[in-house]
Amino acid sequence: MKTALEEIGGEDRLHALVTAFYDRMETDPKAHALHRLHFRGHGLNHTRQAQFEFMCGFLGGRPYYRERNGHMNLREIHGHVPIRTEDADLWLATFDAALTDCEMSGQAVDKLRATLRRAAHMLVNDVPDWRAEADERAKA
């Protein structure tokens, strides 16, 4: 039985997908809110590699992320980032556009979309938005 990674075309196709996703995040004005969220972490260069490593293991390939970090707990990875429903939806729309950019479709991609939708909405939290906090401090 093939892994989900094999079904979407292997590591090279996944790498192209992750690259297309982050290229969109950096250049598409509609994705600015996502781009902004990444500055609370290690920045996009780190995140591009970490995303590829995570997705590879997530899709049944080599667990590079787990090998490097000892876990693949999505909530822990994103625990410091304020994620609203609209952020999750924007992430999904941007990822969907990257799938289109890479001409990826079919049953395996539909399953991936459904799985990512569940994962993205599981990450919605009540962490205070640091931009809103900074705006409040500036008003005081």
> How much β-strand is present in the residues?
under 5%
- CA(first)-CA(last) distance: 60 Å
Which regions have little confidence, pLDDT < 50, spanning 5+ residues?
none
> Given the C-alpha coordinates, what overall shape results?
globular
CATH class: Mainly Alpha
Helix proportion = 55-70%
What number is the mean pLDDT? 88
Supply the number of structural domains: 1
> How many strands, which pairing sense, and closed or not: the largest β-sheet?
none
Number of helices: 9
CATH architecture: Orthogonal Bundle
Kindly provide the radius of gyration, computed on alpha-carbon positions and rounded to a whole number of angstroms.
16 Å
- Total strand count, please? 0
Write the layout of secondary structure elements.
Blueprint: H1 4-7, H2 10-27, H3 32-37, H4 44-58, H5 64-69, H6 74-78, H7 85-101, H8 107-122, H9 130-139
Helix pairs in contact: 2-4, 2-7, 7-8
Question: What does the model show?
Answer:
There is one protein chain. This protein is an all-alpha fold and 140 residues long. It has a single domain, classed as Orthogonal Bundle (Globin-like), CATH 1.10.490.10. The protein has helices spanning 4-7, 10-27, 32-37, 44-58, 64-69, 74-78, 85-101, 107-122, 130-139. α7 (85-101) runs antiparallel to α8.
